[in-house]
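Colleagues,

Please find the record for the two-part complex below.
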Amino acid sequence: MSTNAPDDRRYTASHEWAAENDGVVTVGITDFAVQELGDLVFIDLPEVGAEVSIGEAFGEIESVKAVSELLSPCSGKVVEVNTELEDALDTLVESAFENGWMIKIAASDVTQLEALLPADKYAKQLDDHE
Amino acid sequence: MTGRLILDASRPAPLNMALDETLLDRSPPHGTITLRRTAWVTPAATLGRFQRYTEFEIAGATRPSVRRITGGGAILHHEELTIAVVAPTPSPLFPVSKPIALANRIADSVSGALTDRLPSIHRRGGESDERGQVDVVDCFERRSPFDLVCGDGTKAVGLALHRRGDRVLVQGSIRRAPLGLEPDDDEAILRLIAAALGIDALAESQVTSAELARAEELVKSRYGRDEWNRRR
C-alpha cells in the first residue's frame, strides 16, 4: 500500500488528520484508514455547536458490520460539518485529504496539535505497520 | 493470553447492551479477553447501530427493541445463543485491527468451535456487498463474506463489531437449531470459542457490582431512551 501523508497537517495514531488555520482545525481520516475500513456504508458526524474533546469520539463510521469511532485530535466546538459525506461516502475513497474532510473545530487550545504526529512520523508508522 | 468467562444471568435487553459497552470500556488494555454469554429475560430484538427504526417496525417486529453500538442487521433474541467478546487490538490474538481482519478472526474461531457440531459450517466467502445489504432488516437474511453458513447456505452465525480505541466488541448470535445446541451447551461452546481464539487460561467470573452500576447508568442515559433507540 502506498503511503500518502501530506505534510501540511498532523496525524493521530488512529489515522485522523488535522489541519489548523487561524485556530480552526479541519479534521478527516487518512486514505490508509479508508482502505483499512473497507466497504463504507454509514457515517454519523456531530452537529454544528457540539463540543468535542481530545481523544474522544466525535463520530462513527460503519463498514463490514463494524462501527468504528472517529477520534477528535483536539478539544473545542464544532463550527462546520461536511454533511454531504452521509450520502457520498465514496468521497472518502476518492479524496480523503481534501473533499473528504469531516468537521471543522474551533480549537480551545491549538497547542494540543503539537502532540500529534508530523507527516514523516505518521508515514513511518504506516511503514512499520506493513 | 488469559480470558474471563461470564455466564451471565438473564437480563433485560437494554441492560444487556449496556453491560457489553461497559465491558468494552473497562476491559484491561492488555492481555485479557472477555467472553460473555448474554441471556434475555424476555424475547427481545436488537437493531444495528445505523438501522432505521421505521424499517424495523415495517418488518413487523413487535418485541422490545434496543439499538446496539455494533453494526449489521436486526437480531431477534430468544432461542439463539448470544455472545459478546471484548478484546484488545492490536494484540497477540487480534494482531490486525482493521474490521475485515477482526471479523474473519472471530468468524474462524467460532467456526472452529462449532465444527464438531456441524462439520459443514464454513465462512461464506466471496465479495463484500455491504451497501447492497443495508435495506435487509434481519441479520440472518443479510449476506456477508464472513457469515458462517451451513452446508445448504443457511446462515448459522451473525457477527457485528464496534471498535473503540484499542479495543473491539464483537456481538454474536448463534442459531441453536442447525447445530443441535441446547442451553446446557452454552458453557462448553464458549470454552471452545476461547480455545479456538488461542486463550490458554480461562477464568469464570461474574459481572461485578461496579460494572453493573455503570451499565445501569448507561441504561438511563442511552439504552433505555427513545433518543438512542429510535434515533434513526
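The mean pLDDT of chain B is 90.

Comments are welcome before we finalize the supplementary table.
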